[in-house]
Amino acid sequence: MYDVIVVGGGPCGSAAARFCAESGLKVLVLEEHASIGYPVQCAGLLSCNAFDECRVTERSVFQEVSGAKIVSSGGSVLEFDSGKTKAYVVDRAALDREMAENAADAGAEFRLKSYVCGAENGNVFVRGQAGREEIQAEMIIAADGPRSVLSRHYGLKRQEIILSGAQAEVSCPGCHNLVEIYPGASEDFFGWVIPAGEGRARVGLCGGENVPQRFSEFIKRFGPGNVHLVSGTVPLGVMPKTYHNRTLFVGDAAGFAKPTSGGGIYTGVRSAFHASETALECIEKNSFSDSDLKRYEDRWKGDFGRELKIGMMMYKMRRNLSDEKIDDICRVLSRPDIQADIIQYGDMDRPGVIIRKVLKRPAVIKALGLAACMEMKSVFSS
């Protein structure tokens, strides 16, 4: 009998397992794949805060990033370079493995090739190398990704938007310390070029429609030389309820990907921490009612819930922006005084601070439109 079963051996699952094991709980991690870290379905760009939350060494780091360059379809360029490290480009498979190793060192047990097909009252039904079995536990932490089996098993409502993404690693001798963003490459999201060190770059695109065609067109700009192609899905929109029947949902399984970037490591690992705290409390009290589990939801909402709301509003606004409007916004944000604010207050994980600041600028209000600005401001007062 385990205290906690963690479903999924990605960063969120390994983080939850480590936090629980360090608290003295008996933990089992069930991972459906044959090895930790594969398949890779991530751009591999982590903010400094997200990287710190992972509690790993820098051995997975390929490249440090100090800023970004946004290139609109009309040719406007918005560039900001802080002159210091703001993010890391990592080998995601290596990062995942190190996080799993750290969880195992803390006492968590891992089982690979173990497919979870259902659960009830903390017990998990698994198809693995030993055949079908039921494993008993007090609680479950579901870190089983955007296609969460457990959320479907429980009949819980899923995320409202699913985006598709594709990325290739290409030769790019001129790519150094800035991430390049191309809003016009996607109908409702953006394309990117992420420097990956040693003259390489990760060129990718995410969106809701026409992603394969858009990606093919986008990557032609960078010539031949594809090294590796990956694809995946990004769920946007938090589940209405992130707990059920002794189960707490974390990371992409709960819909915690940031709508501004599609990244989910920071919010995912933060949610894993809150889930482990709640699991420990429930087990110590031997109480697993909805009111006990709801403390998890209260915690993550108090931590990053508003940022996800702000991000979703920005995403929905982005879907309605024409290329011409994006061009106008880039020109306004290129003003030296606004650029200085972006460099000082910009945060990949918590964009609320810089958004609140720029919304005070008359030029920004004019570029975005008064109605859109008022709608965004309403989130801050809610």
Written description of the protein model:
- This protein is an alpha/beta fold and 382 residues long.
- The chain has two domains: 2-311, FAD/NAD(P)-binding domain; 312-381, no CATH class.
- Helix 1 (11-22) runs parallel beside helix 6, helix 2 (48-54) packs parallel to helix 6 and helix 9 runs antiparallel to helix 10.
- The protein has helices spanning 11-22, 48-54, 92-105, 149-154, 211-219, 265-285, 290-319, 323-333, 336-345, 352-358, 362-368, 370-381, and strands at residues 2-7, 27-30, 45-47, 61-65, 67-71, 77-81, 87-90, 109-111, 115-120, 123-128, 131-135, 137-142, 161-171, 178-182, 190-197, 200-207, 228-236, 243-244, 247-249.
- The chain is globular, with a radius of gyration of 21 Å.
- The strands form four sheets. A seven-stranded mixed β-sheet has the order 6-5-14-15-16-13-17, sandwiched between helices. A six-stranded mixed β-sheet has the order 8-2-1-12-19-18.
- The protein is built from twelve helices and 19 strands.
- It is 38% helix and 27% strand.
End-to-end CA span? 43 Å
The number of distinct structural domains comes to 2
CATH topology of the largest domain: FAD/NAD(P)-binding domain
Name of the CATH class of the largest domain: Alpha Beta
Largest sheet: 7 strands, mixed
How large is the count of helical segments? 12
**Share in helix:** 25-40%
Number of strands: 19
Give a short overview.
The protein has 382 residues and is α/β, with parallel strands linked by helices. It has helices at 11-22, 48-54, 92-105, 149-154, 211-219, 265-285, 290-319, 323-333, 336-345, 352-358, 362-368, 370-381, and strands at residues 2-7, 27-30, 45-47, 61-65, 67-71, 77-81, 87-90, 109-111, 115-120, 123-128, 131-135, 137-142, 161-171, 178-182, 190-197, 200-207, 228-236, 243-244, 247-249.
